Amino acid sequence: MSEKYDVLVIGAGPGGYVAAIRAAQLGLRTAVVERDRLGGICLNWGCIPTKALLHGADVAHTLANLKPLGFTATGVDFDVAALVEFSRSVSERLSGGVGYLMRKNGVDVITGSARLTGKGVVDVDGAEYRADHVILATGARPRPVPGVIPDGDRVWTYFEALVPAELPKSLLVVGSGAIGVEFASLYADLGSEVTLVELAPQIMPAEDVEVADHVRTRFEKRGMRVRTSTSVSDIDVGPDAVTATLDGDAITVDRVLVAAGVQGNVEGLGLEELGVELDGGFVRTDQWCRTNVFGLYAIGDVAGAPCLAHKASHEGVLCVEKLAGVGHVAPLDHHYVPGCTYARPQVASLGLTEAQAAATGRELRVGRFDLTASGKALALGEPEGFVKTIFDATSGELLGAHMVGAEVTEQIQGFGIARSLEATADDLAEVVFAHPTLSEAMHESVLAALGRPLNT
Amino acid sequence: MSEINAIEVPKWGLSMEEGTVTVWRVSEGTSFRKGDLLCEVETSKITNELEAPFDGLLRRIVAQPGETLPVGGVLAVSASETVSEAEIEEFLSSRGAHPAPAAAPTQETAPAAAPAPTAAPTPTAPAVPKPAASSGSTLVPESLQGQTSGEVFATPHALKLAAKLSLDLDKVTGSGRAGRVSMQDVHNAIRAAGGSVATPPPPARSVLPGRTLKDDSEVDATPVARRLAGNLGINLHDCRATGSRGRVCEADVREAERKFGLVTTSPEPASDAESPVEFETVAFDSMRKAIGKRLQASKRDAPHFRLTADLEIDALLALRKQINAMVPSVKLSVNDFIVKACGAALLRVPEVNVQFDEQTQSVRRYTYADVSVAVALPSGLITPIVRNTDTRSLASVSEEVHSLVTKAKSGTLAPEEFQGGTFTVSNLGMYGVREFDAIINPPQAAILAVGAGAQRPVVVNGEVIPRTILTVTLSCDHRVIDGALGASFLAELKRFVESPALMLV
């Protein structure tokens, strides 16, 4: 007789393992199937190891800017292999942490590749498991660009970009979403000559145009070449270099990184046989993460954009609580999932861009505060960037918040809390922000939206 | 004419026999309106809110949190302000309810019999009950008399009492935080100075004018204030609005809490002496107790008889396979078919679709079939109900069972999801049980025990051929269902199960 679970989760990334913990907490017999490493892309090949590398990039930037602070460093060597080693060790440690969490919560971990062989029936490398509820949390992988075939050597995806054997002298980054922009910034800081290409009219197409322009300007000041509204063609991989054509202009680079978004991992799971409906390569779900198939759910990247770890975790909890009958479960508003890009400068945003907000036809109040007037930003040596807030003029509702500059990724949660509690511009204006902090800029931005800024 | 009313443990559902008070939402001395939330009462399966059955003033809480009373037991007493404590005592003893939980319960039962107390009782006297019925006999020693001058840090009650007794609060030492003078301090001071106190110190909760009962959902308040007020049972209309932009803030709710005397100090937790044990004692939780009690009573009181039938399910399995293969959103189990077939059969044989009321010796016959489904849990079992099984489609029955089973395991079932029903299906087929019989789930009068379907040899026209057979056993309460009636129900069930297309029309 096959093992029977109440909830079986396929994929142990930040969506799947969180869903499994929540299900176990609710008293449901739970298992999670993982074919590779616990923690998924996020812990092993995404969010976390890139942050470890970017920490190295920050140090490189600091070393290059010691003079104003009175330091001189000589004889500084850089071994990219050591930095990669550090990045891998961070992932290793966290993946082990997920294993501990599974044991602690009584979640069975099944290692292998899962395939649905029927409704509520999952085959893992020949062993059959049954479950009342099956949650797909299989994530996503890099989306290929026509004519640009990653070969693992000259043409990279983020997998190779995370573990370079040597620092490329020059790097062409195709795609300027969060992944492309982070690697572009990282390699530029480490010393590569970087060209960033985007098909859309602005880099970071999901971000507010003002933020994107700011990032572009700062990238260009650092010597990066940025091209928008540009397509890449005629990739020719040679033994020592890659040549490509950027809208007619030939370019020769050491390496190419393809970072043109992701596609859902929907293959090989038996979804077609079960009649699971897809939507643009992702599994179609309703507001409670239910697919069209009985007892089958999908969360996180495989269920569509925004493809972010924290969106996956949130959906994992939401999905499990709904199926378990927990009261007061609210659907996720995809617009208000914060997005963070850990480049230099950092970008963090929540809600509608100014253009999207204007398109709603509402009367807006937009506030903006430049970090040039922030004492803390000046003291940190990064007095560039700004905080932009967009409110509905009538209700005071926070429609969007866009931040670019030092450590903004750590601050966006303030606007998330405000939004979640339905705080108005007036409520935020009343809050006492500590001085001197970077977050004071958030306050000033709100005051500016209300027409009464203090420090500009 | 003063009237005394009892607030009783209600009967939620036929199976409910007793209730345990978990928390009071209204304090003594508070007036309430019909429909207000008074307290929460835990039954064997759920915790439910008790709404006031009438308008009134809560004079006495009889059942403290944690106390268990039978249905109809007196939880509290409601009476107008003119009714004396003695009258309430009399009322309570006439109802055979618990004595008053106050410090000196015997006192009020001796109404004004003894003469007024002599002066100068010993300081140790407070514990001794004073035979007096009204506060008129409180003697304030001269040394304490006077008018309170200026600002004294005292509770509102203490201030009121001092004014009433013409007592100078400056002469009383406060024992509260920052030297705040409480009523208890006033009473102690009177006794210490040689006076006497007629009534025992009233509980911390005291009589106050009634509170607002209006809907406060539109009162402008901060999220914290709204949540806190909800938890404390305070109406936002009763709070001042001193928060930013005229909103009621947390401090306003806390102020209202003090105003209504809802602030109570929690008693010291009893410390258990640790001693080594050789075994683990697992106390029965309320579900375990309920199962034991109800099923023991059922087995004892209901004369069970059992009817067993073999159902051929080959046609059912074929139909199930066809539907499941062709409709992604549907996954029917054999049990879903059985539940649906029971619903159909119950309407065909309505004499089985009943609840038995033992007290009135009558049955309630239903026009729709609510079928309970037994769900095994680590801590026991529960029987959530698939409502209107007769009119639901098979897919809808299936979806509902699927959802109810997970809710049962998560402990998130709402009371209405498992209270009631006329019939239960208990299926142990997934454990490989061939057949068994089940104990009736009162007030229902019948239960179907379903075993595992398996291929068995069947003789047809003198030939032995394999057929998939499912054995079911119907347990009936003979007080309600006779043998022939049970047999006709089984025959209907067999007809639906063996010709499953009938369930689709």
Biggest β-sheet description of chain B: 7 strands, mixed
Query: Terminal Cα separation of chain A, in Å?
Result: 72 Å
Report the biggest beta sheet of chain A as strand number plus sense, adding barrel if it closes: 7 strands, mixed
* Unreliable residue stretches of chain B: 99-136, 200-208
Q: Please give the alpha-carbon distance between the first and last residues of chain B.
A: 64 Å
Number of helices of chain A: 14
Largest interface: A-B, 27 and 23 residues
Alpha-carbon Rg of chain B, integer: 32 Å
Q: Which terms summarize this structure?
A:
heterodimer; A: 456 residues; alpha/beta; seven-stranded mixed β-sheet; five-stranded parallel β-sheet; 14 helices; 32% helix; globular; B: 505 residues; alpha+beta; OB fold (Dihydrolipoamide Acetyltransferase, E2P); Dihydrolipoamide Transferase; 4 domains; four-stranded antiparallel β-sheet; 10 helices; 19 strands; Biotin_lipoyl (chain B)
Explain the overall architecture.
Chain A: Residues 337-445 form the Pyridine nucleotide-disulphide oxidoreductase dimerisation domain. Chain A: Its EC number is 1.8.1.4. Chain A: Keywords: Cytoplasm, Disulfide bond, FAD, Flavoprotein, NAD, Oxidoreductase, Redox-active center. Chain A: It catalyses: N(6)-[(R)-dihydrolipoyl]-L-lysyl-[protein] + NAD(+) = N(6)-[(R)-lipoyl]-L-lysyl-[protein] + NADH + H(+). The complex is a heterodimer of chains A (456) and B (505). Chain A is an alpha/beta fold. Chain A is 32% helix and 25% strand. Chain A is built from 14 helices and 24 strands. In chain A, strands 1, 2, 3, 4, 5, 6 and 19 form a seven-stranded mixed sheet that branches. Chain A has a five-stranded parallel sheet with strand order 8-15-9-10-11. Chain A has a five-stranded antiparallel sheet with strand order 20-21-24-23-22, with helices on both faces. The longest helix of chain A is centred in the N-terminal third of the chain and has 25 residues, at 80-104. Chain A is globular. The N and C termini of chain A lie far apart (72 Å). In chain B, strand 10 (354-357) and strand 11 form a beta hairpin. Chain B is elongated and about 110 Å long. Chain B has 505 residues and is α+β, with helices and mostly antiparallel strands. The longest helix of chain B is centred in the last third of the chain and has 17 residues, at 394-410. Chain B has ten helices and 19 strands. In chain B, 25% of the residues lie in helices and 20% in strands. Mean pLDDT of chain B is 83; it is low at 99-136 and 200-208. Chain A binds chain B through residues 1, 4, 6, 26-29, 119-120, 132-133, 274-276, 292-295, 323-327, 421, 426-427, 430, and chain B through 223, 244-245, 324, 328-331, 378, 398-399, 402-403, 405-407, 409-413, 430, 432.
